[in-house]
Amino acid sequence: MAFEGLSERLQETMKKITGKGKVSEADVKEMTREVRLALLEADVNYKVVKDLIKRIKERAVGQEVMESLTPGQQVIKVVRDELTELMGGEQSKIAVANKPPTVIMMVGLQGAGKTTTTGKLANHLRKNSNRNPLLVAADVYRPAAIDQLETLGEQLDLPVYSKGTEANPVDIANEAIEKAKAEHHDYVIIDTAGRLHVDEDLMDELQQVKTNMNPDEIFLVVDSMTGQDAVNVAESFDSQLDISGVILTKLDGDTRGGAALSIRSVTGKPIKFAGMGEKLDQLEPFHPDRMASRILG
Ligand code: GDP
Predict the structure, then answer these.
(1) Are 190 and 102 in contact (CB under 8 A)?
(2) Phi, psi for 111 (deg, rounded to 5)
(3) Distance, CA 13 to ligand 1 centroid (Å)?
(4) Is residue 233 in contact with ligand 1, taking CB distance under 6 Å?
(5) What is the pLDDT of residues 258-275, one digit of tens each?
(6) Where does GTP bind (predicted)?
(7) Nearest C-alpha to atom 11 of ligand 1 is from which residue?
(8) Is any ligand 1 atom within 6 A of the Cβ of residue 194?
(9) Theoretical Cys-Cys bridge with 34: which of 13, 156, 175, 244, CB 3.0 to 4.6 Å?
């Protein structure tokens, strides 16, 4: 299960403080030391941990705790609030264009789960918001990726616009948007090319698609199992493309939690959804408060 180690350690730490009728500075010091170690072990970015611990410390020795009737529980609330804030605070909703279709560009490295997530997102929009999305296969370098999206479209009974590997991604995306307007699709979700590593050609191509499409959302799909690498990938994509949000996949796996806890703070971009399994209905809106509660038990 995701966050297992982190969760166990933090719960252990919180147990020590929970019933305390008085919380001393020494208690806070001990608690923050343990929280710090647990987060570092979960592969949370060093600087993120440092800032977080500073905030927790300041609040935990402050008035809100000292004047509380249940100081131990108040300290735990501080930790919960700060973890929630770290992951973005409020849940971040998906954009809706003033004039349909809303255009979503999906980007990410190969293997992160981009194509699967494209299908999942379309399914989510149809099921939960009654939308009528059009999927677009714009990874023209990998016939397998196009086939994969077409298969997903068949499984979901949703249309997929594709032109094989001969056309260029900008033309494909433009034509898809025209088709969406003509056929009244309110969302267009473009599955763009992925590579094994971030490289200049890929970024150039994605920038061209972005400039042409002027998408309402650019979602970066990252594999939460890759920890700090996921954070580095997010930083590079964001610096090149100014992404609008992150979708974290494989949160059903035994990820330590580093990516989920660092990405928002490092990139400033919200985590919008979490992939919770391979099935097409296993995509969930990301709720920072629920995630923090899950971690703290
Ligand atoms: P792409 O290369 O980025 O398009 O990646 P794919 O969509 O082909 O996904 C790569 C693998 O990750 C596939 O086996 C997917 O089933 C799997 N996958 C994607 N999202 C999730 C998820 O949230 N949880 C799990 N367990 N597997 C996932």
Answers:
(1) no
(2) 95, -10
(3) 34
(4) no
(5) 999 999 999 999 999 999
(6) 108-115, 191-195, 249-252
(7) 113
(8) yes
(9) 13
How far is it, in rounded angstroms, from Cα 281 to Cα 43? 29
Would you give the DSSP letter of residue 93? Answer: P
110 C-beta closer than 6 A to ligand 1: yes
Mutate to test the pocket of ligand 1, among 248, 271, 278 (most ligand atoms within 8 A of CB): 278
Q: Which two tokens stand for residue 23?
A: 């919380």
Nearest to 172 by CA among 161, 183, 160, 187: 161
State the distance from the centre of ligand 1 to the C-alpha of 115, rounded, in angstroms: 8
Q: How many CA atoms lie within 13 A of 244 on its CB side?
A: 16
19 lines ligand 1 (CB under 6 A): no
Supply the pTM of this predicted model.
Answer: 0.96
Give residue 2's pLDDT: 86
CA 93, chain centre distance (Å) = 12
Greatest CA separation for the chain = 70
- Ligand 1 pocket, residue 113 CB under 6 Å: yes
pLDDT tens by residue, 217-233: 999 999 999 999 999 99
